[in-house]
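Dock uracil; give full complex structure.
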Amino acid sequence: MRLDNFLSKILNISRTQASDLIRQKEIFVNNSLSLHKDQQVSNTDEVRYRDKILEYEEYVYYLLNKPSGYVCDTSRSLYPSVFTLIKDYRQDLACAGRLDVDSVGLVLITNDGALVHQVIANNFITKTYYVELAKSLTDEQVQQLEAGCEIYLDKEKTIYLTKPAKVQRLTNESIYLTISEGKFHQVKKMLKYVDNEVTLLKRVAIGNIKLPEIPLGTYLKITKPTI
Ligand code: URA
């Protein structure tokens, strides 16, 4: 990888800012001053900025316990992004499946694009939500949720029949709902279809990954998960 690219990724700065650091004689590669932004560096090279050795990790994985009031993207919004909670933020991070601003719980954040794609595009990876409801659920409504609900996909009111789901009753007004897809506002729309309303939505699992027992707003750094 080119040195300016390496610095830009690891220090979370632009390539121009990275070139400036090189020009200002701040960067050493294997103890030699580096003056060339196009110098190639690899994992085995020691890159130093002032007194700090910069260690580049190609892929990083975080399990965040998302609090309410945060959004899962970086678009300008009234709300802060979940990425502001990650101390070692880097620009190539993405959420492998979003949660709404008022939803809480498990968000897998990574720069491993293949894994993000696998979670978002694969209809076999289950997502389990703990759901609190405004009203009691009847057995018929549970069956309806499991069999499939007709939800609107967009403003044009394109109708979509949700794939079979699994409901585990906890109380009359709370369930675990497991689905294997992730349409926009899907859980809320499914509950609306059965004449109910979500009052709390918390994602507790994505495939094999369970929400760790950590405070809201904090995260665990993990190695590549098997989903
Ligand atoms: N379904 C929803 O309606 N909202 C979420 O945040 C996740 C799933």
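Observed: The helical segments are 3-11, 15-23, 113-121, 139-147, 186-193.
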